[in-house]
């Protein structure tokens, strides 16, 4: 086995691990009662100054982005990481302003840094690449051929 395969497989495994953690976040945001992270998120969101239903918005974004992170196309990984950067910036700010536990502040900030790294790894050469479906060897979009 080539020595170049291992770093790629490790990175893929890391994407899956991070996506799994956001999927757990998705499930716990929809969970009606207390979670293994403490009180129900409906209660936590109200304590942080948000409406209780906002947990569904955050959970949905986490779930969709978790799926995007494991799709083996760079543009999907980039879009997922970028959306999570926006979400995690708000989460980090919320945890700092609300005076949340240290582990919650550190976890949000750590995930934010990881998403910045994922976005940089998958940065498109041209922003229009995010909109293209694919091109043939001659550069003609596949949808026009």
UniProtKB/TrEMBL annotation:
<feature type="transmembrane region" description="Helical">
    <location>
        <begin position="78"/>
        <end position="100"/>
    </location>
</feature>
<keyword id="KW-1133">Transmembrane helix</keyword>
<dbReference type="Pfam" id="PF13564">
    <property type="entry name" value="DoxX_2"/>
</dbReference>
<feature type="transmembrane region" description="Helical">
    <location>
        <begin position="52"/>
        <end position="71"/>
    </location>
</feature>
<dbReference type="InterPro" id="IPR032808">
    <property type="entry name" value="DoxX"/>
</dbReference>
<keyword id="KW-0812">Transmembrane</keyword>
<protein>
    <recommendedName>
        <fullName>DoxX-like family protein</fullName>
    </recommendedName>
</protein>
<feature type="transmembrane region" description="Helical">
    <location>
        <begin position="12"/>
        <end position="32"/>
    </location>
</feature>
<keyword id="KW-0472">Membrane</keyword>
<feature type="transmembrane region" description="Helical">
    <location>
        <begin position="106"/>
        <end position="123"/>
    </location>
</feature>
């Amino acid at each position: 086995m080539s020595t170049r395969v291992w770093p790629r497989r490790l990175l893929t495994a890391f994407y899956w691990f991070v996506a799994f953690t956001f999927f757990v976040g998705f499930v716990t945001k929809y969970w009606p009662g207390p979670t293994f992270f403490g009180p129900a998120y409906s209660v936590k969101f109200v304590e942080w100054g948000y409406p209780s239903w906002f947990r569904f918005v955050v959970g949905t974004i986490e779930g969709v982005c978790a799926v995007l992170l494991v799709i083996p196309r760079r543009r999907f990984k980039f879009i997922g990481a970028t959306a999570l950067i926006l979400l995690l910036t708000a989460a980090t700010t919320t945890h700092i302003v609300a005076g949340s536990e240290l582990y919650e502040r550190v976890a949000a900030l750590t995930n934010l840094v990881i998403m910045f790294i994922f976005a940089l790894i998958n940065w498109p050469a041209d922003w229009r690449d995010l909109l293209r479906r694919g091109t043939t060897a001659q550069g003609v979009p596949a949808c026009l051929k």
